[in-house]
Amino acid sequence: MRIYKVGGAVRDRLLGIPVTDIDWVVVGATTEEMLAKGFRPVGADFPVFLHPKSGEEYALARTERKSGRGYGGFTFHASPEVTLEEDLIRRDLTINAMAEDDQQNLTDPYHGQRDLEARLLRHVSPAFAEDPLRVLRVARFAARYAALGFTVAPETLELMRQLSESGELEALTPERSWKEISRALMEDQPQVFIEVLRACGALKVLMPEVDALFGVPQPPAHHPEIDTGAHTLSVLQQAALYKQPLTVRWACLLHDLGKGLTPEEEWPRHIAHEFKGLKLIKAVNERFKAPRDCQELAMLVGEYHTHGHRALELKPSTLLELLQSFDVYRRPQRFEEFIAACEMDARGREGLEERSYPQADYLRGAATAARTVAVQPLLEKGFKGPELGEAIKRERLKALKAYKEQV
Fold first, then answer.
1. Mean pLDDT computed over 89-114
2. Dihedral through CA 72, CA 76, CA 82, CA 87, nearest 10?
3. Is residue 20 very low, low, confident or very high in pLDDT (cuts 50, 70, 90)?
4. Residue 88 Ramachandran class (φ > 0 left, ψ -120 to 50 alpha, else beta)
């Protein structure tokens, strides 16, 4: 029995960046031997075990063979005869197909270290094209390591293009796709994820609504970058720069989908794109079964982001309607995330990244003013039921009028 550290732990150590997860592969062992040493089995499809003390995952060396469509369409074979090299060749990228023993002696049969130095994301073998999930994974790695100068090797991008055209991407489950998408959006340069998906044709398969934004012009006076797709990528980049949570980043990606529906003869204006885009945002949300908080914020940002930009001009009654839509009294955090998405949208414009966004503090102040309305005095006056609701609304409107006059 020989045990090796493999994959990301080896890669990141060689890159000199913190190692977060450690994967181990065990060569020359049987399931019975692992159980006898106290390892606990966890893998339903192939032999993976948890270490009795550390809880880390140890997998028996295995080979795999394509047996069906999609990410799960594989038959695995694990036995003591499977070599380390045979186990490594089934991995996605050369930089993930390295192993080291407890003395840090490197096993690198597919030149991963060379590709690390060349800053290349390159597939290990033609079997790469058998797993559609790898299209998303490579795009995610491109986003993660973009700051270090990594790019996707042309021949790997070509395989990703073939996968995108094969219909295999449609076989991915929403859960697996969302796992990759959400992780990619939380990288330091999530816009690179979208760029790589677009470069290999996967974006028009997975998110045709986002792909449709590229080449759609906007008014240069408001959007010096002009192209709606380019603007969306810039907004996503700003969201990462400002360390926004996943909910905000997802909303930033989808906020302008309605502009992809504008007839060419109306370009570069996009009248009512906020409302037109809602059905598209809903479709993308449902396609990937995004978590409810991501779905809700994306819909609200899509509908109201231009309200955010015009906050200083809004009538008190419109401002009150906006606050009610977000339920700022019970869910203040969601409104805060809306403000953040609006600010990222404003900053995601060429040459305007540093411009101040006074709307943010104005909206926060408005929410505070509306929240300060006390319900108890109204109850003491005898209001109840629907009448109480109307009385609260009147008092909040009065508070917002006073707030607007003060600012």
1. 96
2. 0
3. confident
4. alpha
For the record, the structure tokens of 29 come out as 């062992």
| Complete DSSP assignment for 337-373 | HHHHHHHHHHHSSTT-TT---THHHHHHHHHHHHHT-
pLDDT category at 182 given cuts 50, 70, 90 is very high
Q: Which residues pair with 107 in a beta bridge?
A: 99
Q: 258 with 302: CB under 8 angstroms?
A: yes
DSSP state of 58: E
List, in order, residues 6 or more apart from 318 with CB less than 8 Å away.
307
Contact 251, 262 (CB under 8 A): no
Strands, sheet with 99-100, edge to edge from the N-terminal-most edge strand: 40-41, 48-50, 57-60, 23-27, 2-6, 99-100, 106-107
Pairing of strands 74-78, 62-66: antiparallel
**Cβ 264 vs Cβ 304: under 8 Å:** no
Q: What is the per-residue pLDDT across 267-295, written as a single tens digit (0 to 9) for each?
A: 999 999 999 999 999 999 999 999 999 99
Of 86, 224, 72, nearest to 133 by C-alpha is 72
pTM of the model: 0.93
Q: Which CATH architecture has domain 1-111?
A: 2-Layer Sandwich (3.30)
Element (H, E) at 206: helix 203-206
Burial classification of residue 112, based on how many CB atoms lie within 10 Å of its CB (0-12 exposed, 13-18 middle, 19 or more buried): buried
* CB-neighbour burial class of residue 330 (10 A; exposed 0-12, middle 13-18, buried 19+): exposed
